[in-house]
Amino acid sequence: MAMRVVVLNHVSLDGVIQAPGRPDEDTRGGFAHGGWAAPYGDPVMAQWIGPIATGAPGAMLMGRRSYTSMLGAWNARGGPFRDALNAATKYVASNDPRATLPWPNSTLLTGDVAAAVATLKREQDGTLLVMGSGALIRSLVPHDLIDEYRLAIYPLLLGGGVRMFPDDGLSHRLELVDSRTTTTGVILATYRPAGRRPAS
Hints:
Elements: E1 3-12, H1 43-54, E2 59-63, H2 64-77, H3 80-87, E3 89-93, E4 106-109, H4 113-123, E5 126-131, H5 134-140, E6 148-154, E7 172-181, E8 187-196
Parallel strand pairs: 1-5, 1-6, 2-3, 2-5, 3-4
Antiparallel strand pairs: 6-8, 7-8
Helix pairs in contact: 2-3
């Protein structure tokens, strides 16, 4: 029995994951480029993301900000992705033990989230999908808790914003296991960890 943690994210060429979907998604730090991913959609992208939109993704792991933003937007919008998100088991990481989780099938993870995720990986099977959730991802990377990265890498530089990976001086090698390119120049790449680079 083992659960895999899989990250699925839209990321700019300079590593930004902040607010890809819409202008008002996340304006922290005065970020003014919200919705930057929208012009790049095409059938190749839709096919790549399709399995998530057409059925429940199983279990999800999210930071509370991503949980609130994503679930709020899709519950207001409706459609099959809303139903899939609501049906999925959702583990939500938060520093606030009193955080409220208004959508069904949601469980709060607080305290040592990395340890809680390690326990889930040991005791359950299937896939634990992470979307958005930059702070959460940065907390998991140093503990080698992420099994796969599925990244849509966009051909643009945003010059600032929330980035996905930690800036902690640790080196992590990744292996490219699949890639394709959309008609708009987005690289859809799947990476798996290949071990840490030995310290020199």
